[in-house]
Every structure is written in structure tokens, then in C-alpha cells.
Amino acid sequence: MKLNYVLLTALTLGLLSCGEKSNEPVETAELAVIETPKKMMTSFYDFKMKTLDGEDFDFSSLKGKKVLIVNTASECGFTPQYAQLQELYEAEGGEGFEILGFPANNFGAQEPGSNKEIAQFCSKNYGVSFTMFEKISVKGEDMHPIYKWLTQKELNGVSDAEVKWNFFKFLIDENGKWVKVLPSNVSPIDDEIINWIKE
Questions:
Q1: 84 near 189, Cβ under 8 Å?
Q2: Which of 43, 61, 165, 178 might form a disulfide with 158, Cβ 3.0–4.6 angstroms?
Q3: Are residues 51 and 80 located together in one domain of the fold?
Q4: pLDDT tens across 13-37, in order?
């Protein structure tokens, strides 16, 4: 909430005299209104996180690349999308495009594993080689700051959004600007995504 502090100064000889009345006019200063700044937008490139392997990852390394962000789970009906995400990464990943996966247990308790277990699952079953991060929360009171940025217009500067299920997707352009969201049932190799990458 914006806080306003109003400073009022009255200067008069009569007021400075204890208990004495004065017929002299009271001279007052203009009101000075000091406002706290609005919540500032955060840059996508300001974030730093740990990968599933415990390595530091600086989002500033993504400058100049389009990015697909997806919250993942190992026991979901959409879990086979890991294969499609890997297919997309092998076809388009590299200098101009990246995929960032964020395991989360927010929906149906479908990601119960530890970071180590998730990493083993992704590698063994889908050969995942795109960047996967440590398990986080993507909604609720303990929502991770990166998902606050993704879902709050006052932070990303473009739009509010709500993560509705596992494998919900966000598209970020090569300048770190929020572009759009795609629901869980949109395949990672859908033409809409591929055409966006190639634009």
C-alpha cells in the first residue's frame, strides 16, 4: 500500500512562546508529499538458482535466447511430455533457444521425489539433457520468486497468469520479455511453439 507522509511546519513567534497568544499571522510551509516508489518490475535475467545437480545457474546467461519454462512432475498424466520436451531441445536447443524445467509437487502430489530421485528419473526414462532445477513450489504462499515473476504483472510488466497444473508452459523471448502461457495439454512440439522459436 502506498504510504504518504505529510510534513507541515508552522513558523511564528507567537507559537514559540509558551502559552502566549499572538495576533501575528501564522506562516506555514507548503505541504511536502513523499511517496514510496511503486513495486518495481524485476528483470528475468536477475534470477539465480540451483539446478537438480546442485550447480549454480545465472539467468543472465540466457540473454539473446528464447526460453520455454515448464513445471514438471514424475507421476502425472502429462509426464510423457518429457520425451517431447527433449525432442524439442535436441531439434532447436542451443544458441537461440533453451528449455528450463521446474519440478514441483503442487498438483496431486505428483512429484514426491527428492532432487536426486527426480534427476535419476528424468535421465533414465527420458534422457533429459535440458536444464532442470531443484524442486520448488509454483503456487501458494511458498511460491518461488521465479514463479512470482512469471505470474504477476507488477513484476514481469506484461500479464498476470495462474499455473493450473503440471506441464504448464511459459514463453520468454530473447530479450527476457514475458510472451505468453500455454496450458498443460499443449504439446511441447506443437506448431505454435516451433513457429515461435523459428520467428
A1: yes
A2: 178
A3: yes
A4: 343 344 444 455 444 444 444 444 4
Question: pTM for this structure?
Answer: 0.80
Beta strands in the chain (DSSP E): 4-7, 10-11, 27-28, 32-35, 48-50, 56-58, 66-72, 97-103, 131-132, 169-172, 178-182
Contact predicate 184/165, CB 8 Å: yes
Find the domain containing 19 and state its range: 4-35
Answer yes or no: do 31 and 66 share one domain. Answer: no
Q: Report how far residue 108's alpha carbon sits from residue 110's, in angstroms, rounded to the nearest whole number.
A: 5
| Cell numbers found for residue 173 | 523471448
Which amino acid does the sequence have at 7?
L
DSSP secondary-structure letter at 84? H
Phi/psi of residue 39, nearest 5 degrees: -60, 125
**φ, ψ for residue 94 (rounded to 5)?**
140, -130
Q: Which cell numbers in the block locate residue 73?
A: 512432475
What's the grid cell of residue 120? 535419476
> Is position 76 annotated as part of the catalytic site?
yes
Partner residues linked to 184 by β-bridges: none
In this structure, are 117 and 149 located in the same domain? yes
Please identify which of the residues 76, 128, 163, 181 carries the catalytic annotation.
Answer: 76
Three-state DSSP state, 46: helix
- 22 and 51, same domain (yes or no): no
Q: What is the pLDDT of residues 100-134, one digit of tens each?
A: 999 999 999 999 999 999 999 999 999 999 999 99
Residue showing cell 513523499: 34
